[in-house]
Specification:
The structure is a single chain. It contains no helices and nine strands. The chain has 102 residues and is mainly β. It has one domain (4-94). A hairpin with a 6-residue loop joins strand 5 and strand 6. The protein is elongated, with a radius of gyration of 16 Å. Mean pLDDT is 90; it is low at 96-102.
Length: 102
């Protein structure tokens, strides 16, 4: 399932260089889930640490996204150490029908 599209961008706090991550570079893992009134709420997390290729500043990203109900964007939260957000991904949750529903 692909949950993001577009490009996530940030700038390095130390030198200002912009770093861009396409949707296929972000590997979101399912990290939480709970049953709610309209069905499950699912949480996904992408964690990434790298050094700026311009100044070697370490940059850490923790990007969380939730869908609720299934197939719909609910919320997101991004924490960045060593950099600043420029642009967030777009969200594209695909709700695949169960075989019995076809």
């Amino acid at each position: 399932m692909s949950i993001v599209n577009g490009t996530f961008s940030l700038t390095c706090d130390k030198c200002g260089k912009q770093h861009d991550f396409t949707a296929d570079e972000a590997d979101f893992d399912a990290t939480s889930g709970s049953e709610r009134q309209m069905g499950p709420e699912n949480g996904y997390t992408w964690e990434h640490t790298f050094n700026c290729d311009e100044c070697e500043n370490e940059i850490e990203i923790e990007y969380e996204v939730w869908e609720y109900p299934v197939g719909a964007f609910n919320n997101d939260q991004i924490e960045i150490k060593g950099g600043r957000e420029v642009n967030r991904y777009g969200y594209d949750f695909h709700d695949t029908p169960e075989p019995d529903d076809i």
